[in-house]
Predict the structure.
Amino acid sequence: MKKLMLALVIVLGTAAISFAQPSASQTATINAYIEKGLTMAVSNATLNLGNLVAGTTPAAVNPHSGTVPHFTVTGDGGHTVNITFDASVMLHTTGDSIAFTTDFEGDNTASQSGAAAISATIQLSGTSPAAGTYDAWLGGNVGAISASQTPGSYTGTFHVSVNY
Protein backbone atom coordinates (compact mmCIF):
# COMPACT_ATOMS: atom_id res chain seq x y z
CA MET A 1 0.00 0.00 0.00
CA LYS A 2 2.87 2.35 0.82
CA LYS A 3 4.30 1.71 -2.63
CA LEU A 4 0.97 2.54 -4.23
CA MET A 5 0.68 5.76 -2.22
CA LEU A 6 4.25 6.71 -3.09
CA ALA A 7 3.60 6.11 -6.79
CA LEU A 8 0.40 8.17 -6.60
CA VAL A 9 2.23 11.08 -4.92
CA ILE A 10 4.98 10.97 -7.54
CA VAL A 11 2.47 10.95 -10.41
CA LEU A 12 0.32 13.72 -8.94
CA GLY A 13 3.34 15.76 -7.89
CA THR A 14 4.81 15.78 -11.40
CA ALA A 15 1.50 16.12 -13.24
CA ALA A 16 1.39 19.89 -12.73
CA ILE A 17 4.58 20.42 -14.69
CA SER A 18 3.45 18.32 -17.68
CA PHE A 19 0.24 20.30 -18.45
CA ALA A 20 0.16 22.73 -21.39
CA GLN A 21 0.42 26.44 -20.76
CA PRO A 22 -2.92 28.24 -20.44
CA SER A 23 -2.19 30.36 -23.58
CA ALA A 24 0.27 30.68 -26.48
CA SER A 25 0.76 32.95 -29.47
CA GLN A 26 2.81 33.26 -32.66
CA THR A 27 2.96 35.73 -35.53
CA ALA A 28 3.17 35.49 -39.34
CA THR A 29 4.34 38.15 -41.75
CA ILE A 30 2.06 39.01 -44.66
CA ASN A 31 3.64 40.55 -47.76
CA ALA A 32 2.03 41.90 -50.90
CA TYR A 33 3.24 43.81 -53.94
CA ILE A 34 0.68 45.99 -55.66
CA GLU A 35 1.37 46.19 -59.38
CA LYS A 36 0.48 49.21 -61.44
CA GLY A 37 -2.69 48.58 -63.41
CA LEU A 38 -2.25 47.82 -67.09
CA THR A 39 -3.49 50.30 -69.67
CA MET A 40 -3.44 50.11 -73.44
CA ALA A 41 -3.82 52.95 -75.90
CA VAL A 42 -4.02 52.82 -79.69
CA SER A 43 -3.19 55.50 -82.22
CA ASN A 44 -3.87 55.24 -85.96
CA ALA A 45 -6.65 52.83 -84.98
CA THR A 46 -7.71 52.04 -88.56
CA LEU A 47 -5.61 49.91 -90.89
CA ASN A 48 -6.63 50.97 -94.40
CA LEU A 49 -5.68 48.37 -96.99
CA GLY A 50 -6.72 50.69 -99.81
CA ASN A 51 -8.44 49.58 -103.03
CA LEU A 52 -7.74 45.93 -103.76
CA VAL A 53 -8.44 44.23 -107.09
CA ALA A 54 -10.12 40.83 -107.42
CA GLY A 55 -7.86 38.22 -109.04
CA THR A 56 -4.65 39.75 -107.63
CA THR A 57 -2.33 39.25 -104.66
CA PRO A 58 -1.83 42.63 -102.97
CA ALA A 59 1.36 43.43 -101.11
CA ALA A 60 1.41 42.87 -97.35
CA VAL A 61 1.15 45.89 -95.04
CA ASN A 62 4.44 46.15 -93.19
CA PRO A 63 4.05 46.84 -89.44
CA HIS A 64 7.27 48.88 -89.67
CA SER A 65 5.60 51.54 -91.84
CA GLY A 66 4.45 54.72 -90.10
CA THR A 67 0.73 54.64 -90.82
CA VAL A 68 -0.34 51.37 -89.17
CA PRO A 69 -2.22 50.95 -85.87
CA HIS A 70 0.15 51.55 -82.94
CA PHE A 71 -0.64 50.02 -79.53
CA THR A 72 1.10 51.14 -76.31
CA VAL A 73 0.84 48.99 -73.18
CA THR A 74 1.76 50.68 -69.89
CA GLY A 75 2.23 48.91 -66.56
CA ASP A 76 4.76 48.04 -63.87
CA GLY A 77 8.26 48.55 -65.28
CA GLY A 78 10.29 45.43 -66.02
CA HIS A 79 7.36 43.06 -65.51
CA THR A 80 6.30 40.30 -67.88
CA VAL A 81 2.82 40.66 -69.31
CA ASN A 82 0.69 38.02 -71.05
CA ILE A 83 -0.63 39.13 -74.43
CA THR A 84 -3.22 37.59 -76.71
CA PHE A 85 -4.24 38.83 -80.13
CA ASP A 86 -5.98 37.68 -83.27
CA ALA A 87 -3.69 35.79 -85.65
CA SER A 88 -6.23 36.43 -88.38
CA VAL A 89 -9.31 38.59 -88.84
CA MET A 90 -12.25 37.91 -91.13
CA LEU A 91 -13.15 40.96 -93.21
CA HIS A 92 -16.83 40.95 -94.16
CA THR A 93 -19.09 42.57 -96.73
CA THR A 94 -22.68 41.68 -97.57
CA GLY A 95 -22.63 38.03 -98.66
CA ASP A 96 -18.86 37.53 -98.68
CA SER A 97 -15.69 37.60 -96.57
CA ILE A 98 -11.94 37.36 -96.87
CA ALA A 99 -9.26 36.45 -94.32
CA PHE A 100 -6.66 38.98 -93.20
CA THR A 101 -3.54 37.37 -91.67
CA THR A 102 -2.09 39.67 -89.02
CA ASP A 103 1.56 40.57 -88.55
CA PHE A 104 1.72 42.00 -85.02
CA GLU A 105 5.19 43.15 -84.00
CA GLY A 106 6.47 45.00 -80.97
CA ASP A 107 9.37 46.37 -78.96
CA ASN A 108 9.87 47.73 -75.43
CA THR A 109 12.09 50.58 -76.62
CA ALA A 110 9.35 52.28 -78.70
CA SER A 111 11.33 51.49 -81.86
CA GLN A 112 8.96 50.71 -84.70
CA SER A 113 11.85 49.84 -87.00
CA GLY A 114 13.26 47.43 -84.39
CA ALA A 115 9.96 45.68 -83.70
CA ALA A 116 9.89 41.88 -83.84
CA ALA A 117 7.18 39.20 -83.84
CA ILE A 118 5.25 38.97 -80.57
CA SER A 119 4.82 35.67 -78.73
CA ALA A 120 2.60 34.93 -75.70
CA THR A 121 4.42 37.29 -73.32
CA ILE A 122 6.00 40.72 -73.54
CA GLN A 123 8.48 42.50 -71.25
CA LEU A 124 7.70 46.06 -70.22
CA SER A 125 10.56 48.56 -70.33
CA GLY A 126 11.96 50.14 -67.19
CA THR A 127 12.25 48.96 -63.62
CA SER A 128 9.56 48.76 -60.96
CA PRO A 129 8.19 50.83 -59.27
CA ALA A 130 8.46 53.16 -62.28
CA ALA A 131 6.03 52.65 -65.16
CA GLY A 132 7.18 50.62 -68.14
CA THR A 133 5.86 50.41 -71.68
CA TYR A 134 5.69 48.11 -74.67
CA ASP A 135 4.77 49.29 -78.17
CA ALA A 136 3.28 47.13 -80.92
CA TRP A 137 2.31 47.77 -84.53
CA LEU A 138 -0.21 45.93 -86.71
CA GLY A 139 0.37 44.89 -90.30
CA GLY A 140 -0.54 41.85 -92.36
CA ASN A 141 -2.07 40.73 -95.63
CA VAL A 142 -5.14 39.28 -97.33
CA GLY A 143 -3.18 36.97 -99.61
CA ALA A 144 -4.53 36.11 -103.05
CA ILE A 145 -7.95 37.58 -103.79
CA SER A 146 -10.21 35.33 -105.84
CA ALA A 147 -11.33 36.68 -109.23
CA SER A 148 -14.91 36.00 -108.08
CA GLN A 149 -14.56 37.96 -104.82
CA THR A 150 -17.64 40.15 -104.27
CA PRO A 151 -16.86 43.84 -104.82
CA GLY A 152 -17.60 46.11 -101.88
CA SER A 153 -16.33 47.53 -98.61
CA TYR A 154 -14.92 44.87 -96.24
CA THR A 155 -14.43 45.45 -92.52
CA GLY A 156 -13.25 43.42 -89.54
CA THR A 157 -12.02 43.94 -86.00
CA PHE A 158 -8.62 43.09 -84.55
CA HIS A 159 -8.60 42.20 -80.83
CA VAL A 160 -5.64 42.40 -78.45
CA SER A 161 -5.61 42.00 -74.67
CA VAL A 162 -2.99 42.00 -71.91
CA ASN A 163 -2.83 40.82 -68.30
CA TYR A 164 -0.25 40.09 -65.61
The chain has a mean pLDDT of 90. Residues 36-146 form one domain.
